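Morning, I've got a small favour to ask if you have a moment. Here's the protein in full, and shout if anything looks odd to you:
***
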Amino acid sequence: MPTHSRVTRRLGLKSALAASVVLPLSSTALPPGPASADERPERPLRVMSFNLRFASTAEPNSWAARRPVMRQLLRRERPHVLGTQEGLYRQLRDIGADLGPSYDWIGTGRAGGSRDEFMAVLYDTRRLAPLEYDHFWLSDTPDVIASNTWGNAHIRMVTWVRFRDLRADGREFCVLDTHLDNASQYARERAAALVAERVRELARSLPVVVTGDFNAAAHGNPVYDTMLGAGLVDTWDAAAERGEAYGTFHGYGPLVPGGARIDWILATPGVTVHRASVNTFAASGRFPSDHLPVQACLTL
């Protein structure tokens, strides 16, 4: 975990996670600089969910080819908190280097340690301070690292972090980030039920924001109904202002206006959603990922 932060793990997973590693983007962090005009307390929290598409060498969409576009997008948007899916360790290191020393992250590989894909949560240290974090796996044995009991095509998990908002009178909130299975509807439904249960537990005391690739269309799948049944609000629907709607998975093909929105940002009631958008940024016809990131500006 980041050495500069007094972040504690939940005791329930302390021994189970002793063999895993939570790897920071940078080994050192600079002290927070003076707040810019964009970091004043009245500014909303900028949240992004982004399936990064794991780093590979396969052309024409290798990570080497996509990284410069990813760098441009993230430097332009500068989210305060970014829930990611599919990132590999070295890929997350690259993104951290590209964002600069004011960003850090929390996560572990879904197979434990630095192995496999991460549900990493990146955050701007000038705005947010992590206080507590934990992981659980989407299975009948959620405290067992890499457990997979519902027929998922891949190991699936959740990373969650409790943050203090340094620009909002120290207000606290939790972020949960996940990636549901791409192959099994049954596994997705079981996973949604488990995530909803954990959200209810956390929401008893704090606002909660959920980011993720749910591999299920909003308004068109029982997974969505389960998540909203937990008392969560779809920030896209709740937004005072919205960008154009697009299908969030494009597979490097043409964008689909009004297509299936499988990547979501959800929040507990009481959140004010100033704006929600699907970011279609590309450079010279190249996208940073096979998914479009979704964004929301919130006041919790």
